[in-house]
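Quick illustration for those who missed Monday's session on complexes.
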Amino acid sequence: MKQYIIKGGIPLVGEVDIAGAKNAALPIISAAIMTDETVTLENLPDVNDTNVLLEAIRNIGAQVDRVDRHTVRINGSTICDCAVGYECIKKIRASYYLIGALLGKCSKAEVPLPGGCNIGSRPIDQHLKGFRAIGANVDIKYGKVIANCSHMHGAHIFLDTVSVGATINIMMAACRSEGLTTIENVAKEPHVVDVANFLNSMGANIKGAGTDVIRIRGVEKLHGCTYSIVPDMIEAGTYMMAAAATRGDVVVRNVIPRHLEAITAKLMEIGCEIEEGDDSLRVVAKRRLRRTHVKTQPYPGYPTDMQPQIAVLLSLSEGTSVVTESIFENRFKYVDEMTRMGAQIKVEGNTAIIDGVEGLTAARISAPDLRAGAAMVIAGMAAEGFTIIDDIEYIKRGYEDLDKKLRILGAEIEEVETEREIQKFKLTAG
Ligand code: EPZ
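Prediction with EPZ bound:
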C-alpha cells in the first residue's frame, strides 16, 4: 500500500507549474467522442481519473493515442458500443458524462448509475431531468441509466440546483438536438466555460457559458479540433494554501488569476501577501495568519473543492474560524485526522468551528477523499515531525506529481511502500 511520508516544518519556496484542470478534462474527453473526426487534446492532466476515462472510451471502441504525456488524440468513429462497463463508473463518478456524450452521438446510452461517494450522496436527478426535457426516454433499470431517443429537440430547462455535472451533461446532449435549448440556473465554473468553448471549437453553437443562462442551438454535425485544457484552479489553490500554511513564498505558474479570486481574497483577508502576474500568482506568508469565516458556494463563490485545504490553514491561524460547507454533506471527514495532529475543530452539522492552535504535530493519518487528502499533505508539511499518510490513491486521482512538485518547492516528501523505505526516509530527510 502506497503512502506519503513527510517531514514537516519546512516553508515552501519557489515556483510550481499548474496542470490542466481535471474537472474540465473529464467532460472534454467524453465530448471528444461525439464527432467521428479526430480531436487532439493538449494540456491534459496525467492523473488517475483522466486515465480511467480514456480507458473507458477505449473500451467502447474509441481510438486513443497518447502523443506525449499531456497530449492525446481521440477518434470516436470506431465506437461500436453505447454501454459503459461498471468497472469504470465504480472508479470515477464523472463517467456519467458519457450519458450526455453518447446520447448526442448515437441517440442512446447505457451507463451504470453512480452510487454515493465519500463526500456525499450526489444524486443525478437534474442530469436526467434535462435529458428527458430534450426528448430522451430515460429509465433506471438493473442499476443503470438507460437512455434513448428517436428525436432530440430544444427545450427550456430550469435546474433546481446549481450543478456542474448537470449543466455540462445537458449541454453536451443538447448540442445535437434540433432547435434551441435554454438551460437556466446553470453552474458558472471555469470548467463549464471550458467545455462550452471546446464544444464550440467542434462546431457547436453554445452561448452564455459563464453566466446563469446557457443557450444551445443544436447542430447537424460536430467536427474534429485541437484544444488546450484550461489550468486547474483547484490544483493552483491547493499550492497557494500549502504556501500559506508553511509560511512560505510560492509562485503558481500557468494559472488564470481571475479564476482564483475567491481563494486569493480569503488569503489576503487572513494576512497573506499576493502578487498577481498575467498568468501567475505569488503567495507570501511571513507570519501567523488570522481567523476568518468561509462558506462554500458555487462559482464565483469559495469552492467546496478548496474547503479542507483552507480548514487546515485556519487550524493554524490565530483566533476562531467558522467553515460552512453548503454543497456536499460529508466533507468534514478529515477533521478526525486533524484532531490526531493536535487541531481543535468541532463539527456541528455543516459547520466546522476551528480554534487556531500554534502548531500541529505529526501523526499517521489517512486521506479520506481527493481534496481532503491534499489537505492532509498540507497538514503534514506544516506539522512538526514525520507524518505518514495512507490511502494516497485518492490524491492521485486528481493531482499530477504532487510529491515531485512539492519537492521542487523544498518539501521533504516521498512516496513509500515499505517500512524499510520509511526508515530510509527518516534517516536521510534533511
Ligand atoms: C463537480 O461534481 C466536481 N466533479 C466536484 O469535484 C465538485 O466538488 C463539484 O462539481 C462542485 O463544484 C467533477 O467536475 C468531475 P454538482 P458534480 O453537480 O458535478 C447536488 C473534486 O474533488 N446535485 O455541481 O457531481 C449535489 O448533491 C470533485 O474534484 C443534485 O441535487 O457536483 C450537490 O449538493 C469532488 N442533483 C450540488 O448539487 C443533481 O442532479 C452540486 O453538485 C446534481 C447535483
